[in-house]
Design a protein that fits this description.
By secondary structure, this protein is an alpha+beta fold. The chain has three domains: 169 residues, Protein Transport Mog1p, Chain A, CATH 3.40.1000; 137 residues, Jelly Rolls; 177 residues, no CATH class. It has eight helices and 34 strands. α1 crosses α3. The protein starts with 8 loop residues before the first helix and ends in a 9-residue tail after the last helix.
Length: 612
C-alpha cells in the first residue's frame, strides 16, 4: 500500500511562494546594501559652475579644468583627487552642436562608435541604457564596459594593470539641436555609485534659453505661410533662433521609442522632385546620397536611407500645385516604424498651403539678376577688389574658432581664382577643402574643381571627394568622384537661367538687386557645403531686421537672407556700400568675419593642422 504524499498541491504552492518571498527579501536587502555602499562612495556636489551659458554642479573637492581649443565641445574636465599611484575617476561635460535633431540614444550610439574605433579604441564588452533627466530635458543614461582604451579628453591616466574601463554617460538633446552629456570614466570601483553620481549631476544641468519644452498646442505656421498641426502625442520644441526656418516636434518615450519630426518650408523647382528630395537631404547629410526614393502619391515623395537598420529615418517631400512644399524629416531611436507612418499621416492631413505662392516671382527675379550680371560682367562686379582675403569662422557664444578660409585671385588679370578652407573636426583632425575655378568675364564659361580630404596628426590624408563642374555652350556638367573606389557620378543639364557660378558669388552677390529671388549655383565657397553633383538653389530675401554697421560705414550695411532650398538654417550676408562682402552670420550663432594669416596663427593651437 503506497504511502500518502504529505505535500499536497496547495502546500507545494505555499512552500514555493515562501521561497520566492525569502529570495525577494534577500535581493531587496542586497540592493539596499549596494545602494548604501554606492551612496557612501558618492562625493557631495559643489555649488553650480557656469560656463558658456551652462550651469552644472560638480563633485566637491575634485580638480576642475576648462576645455581647450582642440576640443571646443568639452566645456569642463573634472578629476577625482586620489592618493598617488591610484587611478581616479574623470568626468567631462560636453556641449555638442548636432547637424540636426537626433535622439539621445542615437547620439550615444555615435559616441560608442567613436569609443570602439580610432587611435584610442577599446573593445566593447557590455552596455546598459535607461532613462535620465538633464535638468528639464529628457535624456538617456548609458553604462558601457570597455577594455583598455580611453577618450582623448581623459588622456594622462596610467592604464597599465587596470581592469576594464567603465564609461557612464547621461545625454540629452536640447531644442537648440545641441547634445549635452555628462561623461564619467572609472575603473569599476563602484559602478552603482558612478550611475547615481552621473544622474545627480545631470539633474543639476541648466542651459540658458534651451531647457524649456512646450506642449504641441494649436496650429503652427512656417515661413511662406504653410500651416500644420503636430500629432497629438508630440511635444513642440521651442525655436528662438530667428534664422532657423524649421520647427521640431518630439514624441518622447526614452530610451527606445523617441521620434522627432523636423518640418521645413521648401519649393519644388523641377519636374524631378525625387532628385530634388535627394539633393536637399544630401546637402544636410551625405549619407542620404544613396537613399531609396519613391513616389507615394502625386504630391508626396518618400526617402529612406540605405543604412536604415539601427536608427530608422524617413524623409517626406509634400508639395502643392503652386510649388510650395514641406520637407519633413523623421529621426527615431528604434521602435516600431509604423509609429512614424501614423505620425506622418496625422501631420500631412493637417497641412494647409497658401492659395498664392511667390515662387514664380522669385524665379523671374533670379533669372533677371543672373542675366544682368552676365551683361555687366565680372569686371563690373569685382572692380579692383582682387586682393587676397582671409576669413575666420567662430561660434559667437563661446568664441570657439571653428574654421578659416583663404580666398583670392591666382592671376593679376585673368579670371582665375582659388580658395582653401580648413574645418576643425576634433582632436588633431581637420577637413581640408581646396577649390580652383576660372571662367570668362561674361560668366558664360566656367570650370571649377573642388577637393575635400580629411587629415589628422597621424593619418595625413583620408579618402576624400572631388567635384568637377564644367559650364559651357549652355550646359552644365557635374562629375563627382570618391563616392566609392573607381566610381564616378556624372550629371548633365541645360544651364538654368538663374545659374551663377559659385566661385564668383562672394564678389557678385553684393551687386544683385534688393528683390526676393531664387538663384542656382554649384557651391558656396564661404561655407562647408557637401558636394552634391547638382545645382544648389539659394532662396534670397532682402533683410532689414538685423542691422549691422561697418567700421568705416555708420549707416547699416546691406543685408541678404540666404537659405539653401530645403535647409533649416539661413545665413545673413552683410555688404559694404561698394558691394564688397563684409561678414556672414549663420543660424546657431556662427559668424564669419575678415581676418589675416597672422591673427589666425594665434586663433588655433601651435603645431596643429589648423595653422595657415
Amino acid at each position: 500500500m503506497s504511502k500518502a504524499n504529505p505535500y499536497t498541491p496547495a502546500r507545494q504552492i505555499l512552500m514555493q511562494l515562501s521561497m520566492w518571498m525569502v529570495l525577494g527579501a534577500s535581493v531587496a536587502v542586497a540592493a539596499l546594501v549596494n545602494h548604501r555602499r554606492a551612496k557612501a562612495f558618492l562625493p557631495k556636489l559643489d555649488h553650480p559652475t557656469v560656463v558658456n551659458g551652462l550651469s552644472v554642479r560638480l563633485p566637491e573637492g575634485w580638480k576642475v579644468e576648462p576645455g581647450d581649443a582642440a576640443t571646443p565641445d568639452v566645456l569642463l574636465i573634472c578629476r577625482e583627487t586620489v592618493n598617488a599611484g591610484a587611478a581616479g575617476r574623470v568626468l567631462a561635460v560636453h556641449r555638442t552642436r548636432l547637424p540636426g535633431m537626433l535622439s539621445p540614444t542615437e547620439y550615444l550610439g555615435y559616441l560608442l562608435r567613436a569609443e570602439t574605433t580610432g587611435d584610442h579604441a577599446g573593445v566593447l564588452e557590455g552596455t546598459h541604457y535607461e532613462r535620465a533627466m538633464l535638468g528639464l530635458t529628457p535624456g538617456v543614461l548609458l553604462t558601457a564596459v570597455l577594455s583598455i582604451g580611453q577618450m582623448p579628453e581623459f588622456s594622462g591616466e596610467d592604464l597599465e594593470g587596470l581592469p576594464a574601463r567603465h564609461l557612464t554617460v547621461a545625454a540629452g538633446v536640447l531644442p537648440t539641436r545641441e547634445a549635452v552629456s555628462i561623461r564619467l570614466q572609472s575603473w569599476g570601483q563602484n559602478v552603482d555609485a558612478d550611475q547615481i553620481l552621473v544622474k545627480e549631476i545631470a539633474e543639476t544641468v541648466k542651459v540658458d534659453g534651451a531647457d524649456q519644452w512646450s506642449d504641441a498646442g494649436s496650429q503652427i505656421e512656417l515661413a511662406g505661410g504653410v500651416k500644420l498641426r503636430p500629432p497629438a502625442d508630440f511635444i513642440l520644441m521651442p525655436e528662438r533662433d530667428p534664422l532657423r526656418a524649421s520647427r521640431c516636434m518630439v514624441r518622447e518615450n526614452l530610451p527606445a521609442a523617441w521620434i522627432s519630426a523636423e518640418v521645413t518650408p521648401a519649393y519644388r523647382l523641377s519636374n524631378t522632385p525625387d532628385f530634388e528630395l535627394r539633393t536637399m537631404l544630401t546637402l544636410r547629410d551625405p549619407r542620404w546620397r544613396s537613399a531609396n526614393v519613391r513616389k507615394v502619391d502625386d504630391s508626396t515623395w518618400l526617402a529612406t536611407p540605405a543604412d536604415d537598420a539601427q536608427f530608422p529615418s524617413r524623409a517626406y517631400l509634400h508639395t502643392s500645385s503652386n510649388g510650395d512644399s514641406v520637407l519633413t524629416l523623421f529621426q527615431t531611436s528604434g521602435g516600431d516604424a509604423r509609429d512614424v507612418d501614423r505620425a506622418w499621416e496625422s501631420l500631412v492631413s493637417s497641412m494647409e498651403f497658401p492659395s498664392e505662392s511667390d515662387l514664380a516671382k522669385r524665379l523671374i527675379a533670379g533669372t533677371a539678376a543672373a542675366k544682368k550680371l552676365r551683361g555687366t560682367g565680372l569686371a563690373y562686379a569685382v572692380g579692383r577688389g582682387r586682393e587676397e582675403t582671409w576669413w575666420l569662422w567662430y561660434e559667437e557664444s563661446t568664441d570657439a574658432h571653428l574654421a578659416w578660409t583663404r580666398l583670392g585671385f591666382d592671376h593679376p588679370s585673368l579670371w582665375k581664382a582659388s580658395r582653401e578652407t580648413r574645418v576643425q573636426l576634433g582632436i588633431g583632425s581637420v577637413m581640408r577643402i581646396e577649390q580652383t575655378w576660372e571662367g570668362s568675364p561674361d560668366l558664360e564659361s566656367y570650370t571649377a574643381l573642388t577637393n575635400r580630404t580629411e587629415r589628422s596628426q597621424l593619418l595625413q590624408h583620408a579618402p576624400g571627394q572631388r567635384l568637377a563642374v564644367i559650364g559651357e555652350k549652355g550646359a552644365l556638367e557635374f562629375r563627382l568622384f570618391g563616392l566609392a573606389p573607381g566610381k564616378q557620378l556624372t550629371t548633365t543639364l541645360p544651364t538654368p537661367g538663374e545659374f551663377l557660378p559659385g566661385g564668383w558669388l562672394p564678389w557678385i552677390l553684393g551687386k544683385v538687386d534688393d528683390k526676393k529671388m531664387i538663384l542656382l549655383t554649384d557651391s558656396l565657397v564661404l561655407d562647408d557645403v557637401p558636394p552634391v553633383g547638382a545645382v544648389i538653389p539659394l532662396i534670397i530675401t532682402p533683410e532689414t531686421r538685423f542691422p549691422r554697421t561697418a567700421d568705416t560705414q555708420p549707416e547699416p550695411m546691406r543685408c541678404l537672407n540666404i537659405r539653401i532650398n530645403g535647409s533649416s538654417d539661413a545665413s545673413l550676408y552683410y555688404f559694404r556700400e561698394t558691394g564688397e562682402l563684409e561678414s556672414i552670420v549663420q543660424a546657431g550663432g556662427y559668424r564669419c568675419t575678415r581676418t589675416d594669416p597672422q591673427s589666425l596663427k594665434f586663433d588655433f593651437p601651435k603645431d596643429s593642422l589648423m595653422q595657415p
